TrEMBL record:
Record protein name field: Nitronate monooxygenase
Family matches, as Pfam families: NMO
A GO molecular-function annotation: nitronate monooxygenase activity
PANTHER family: 2-NITROPROPANE DIOXYGENASE, 2-NITROPROPANE DIOXYGENASE-LIKE PROTEIN
CDD domains the UniProt entry points to: NPD_like
Listed SUPFAM superfamilies: Inosine monophosphate dehydrogenase (IMPDH)
Length: 330
């Protein structure tokens, strides 16, 4: 058992979280992670309406009686979704954990706290983590440059970002970006975090509701198979390397604007990748930790393996290094 301040405050068995994932964070995946003792998270905006989110929350509850969360991603948008209504669907659904990402959590916090909901705020800089702590969130998920999705514009990798944040953050903090196995989990604990958040690793599990070829592509890919798009627009996103992401980068390098890539990056195209298995239909998020992913396990097997191997690492390799000294080479 790996008990940490995160497992205590958020009421889960293992310090392993499945972060919100557009199109993939559905009931089946979130419930499988929670059922295995991790924290599964349903992605709010994957549901087309707040009413559909209510149903998805009910469906998740039918699949597990363990705690699960809902992700609310606040990104700049010309026509923003009805966030307040999504938030109300979460509250009415009796969900007890919310992951907020992308924007300032302050607007939503009073409503969520009044409903007894624990708020985990995901951000990519120490500055934003400190701000979120000040406004009263219950936990921080700090996302390094390695991550899938939006790593921010500072390019700080986890190896520096996590201990830098740990120095300032007093509430439970989990490390995100580049984590895929027990070694990462133990490293995160050593760096000052109280657990890990994983996206790409959970995207590549048996219960993940994306096409099998997507999972096989992740297994085939290495740590080099990502592209950073939207760099020139100050809204960087790390996505899988494919014909479309390479094209977007080319257009940006040639001085193109968002209008020039709008069609290529449309959400509907990305959805087609996951649902139809057409790998070059659009852009899809994936992180550098693809290079650490070599199989498609069930969530239960993945989490059990990570916890078991983490314990072996701590009590074996690391303990030998300290206790046995020069006699044992870890
Ligand atoms: C397919 C996919 C979709 C994602 N969509 C979202 C999202 O909608 N909101 C969000 O906060 N994070 C999103 N993320 C980021 C993850 O929650 C997580 O922070 C990230 O994947 C961590 O990096 P890793 O992939 O190296 O584990 C997404 C990640 C993936 C792989």
């Amino acid at each position: 058992m790996l008990r940490t301040r995160f497992t205590e405050v958020f009421g889960v068995e293992h310090p392993i979280v499945q972060g919100g994932m557009m199109w993939a964070g559905r009931a089946e995946l979130a419930a499988a992670v929670s059922q295995a003792g991790g924290l599964g998270i349903v992605t709010g905006l994957t549901q087309p309406t707040p009413a559909a989110l209510r149903e998805e929350i009910a469906r998740t509850r039918d699949l597990t009686d363990k705690p699960f969360g809902v992700n609310l991603t606040i990104l700049p948008s010309i026509s923003p979704p009805p966030y307040a209504e999504y938030r109300q669907a979460i509250i009415d659904g009796g969900v007890k954990i919310v992951e907020i990402a992308g924007g300032n959590p302050a607007t939503h916090l009073p409503y969520l706290k009044d409903a007894g909901i624990k708020v985990l705020h995901k951000c990519t800089s120490v500055k934003h983590a400190v701000k979120a702590q000040q406004v009263g969130v219950d936990g921080i998920s700090i996302d390094g440059f390695e991550c899938a999705g939006h790593p921010g514009e500072n390019d700080t990798p986890g190896l520096v970002l996590i201990p830098a944040a740990a120095r300032e953050i007093e509430i439970p903090m989990i490390a995100s970006g580049g984590f895929a196995d027990a070694r990462g989990l133990v490293a995160a604990l050593a760096l000052g975090a109280h657990g890990v958040n994983m996206g790409t690793r959970f995207l590549c599990t048996a219960e993940s509701p994306v096409a099998q070829v997507v999972k096989e592509q992740i297994v085939a890919n290495s740590e080099l198979d990502t592209q950073l798009i939207f760099r020139t627009m100050g809204n960087t996103a790390r996505v899988a390397d494919n014909a479309i992401s390479r094209r977007v980068v080319e257009i940006e390098r040639a001085g193109g604007t968002f209008d020039d890539v709008r069609d290529l990056v449309a959400g509907a195209r990305g959805r087609k990748v996951f649902e139809d298995g057409d790998l070059d239909a659009g852009i899809w998020s994936a992180g550098q930790c693809q290079g650490l992913i070599h199989d498609i396990p069930t969530c239960a097997d993945l989490i059990a393996r990570m916890v078991r191997e983490a314990e072996e690492l701590i009590t074996g390799r690391l303990t030998n290094a300290v206790v046995a000294g020069a006699g044992v080479r870890p």
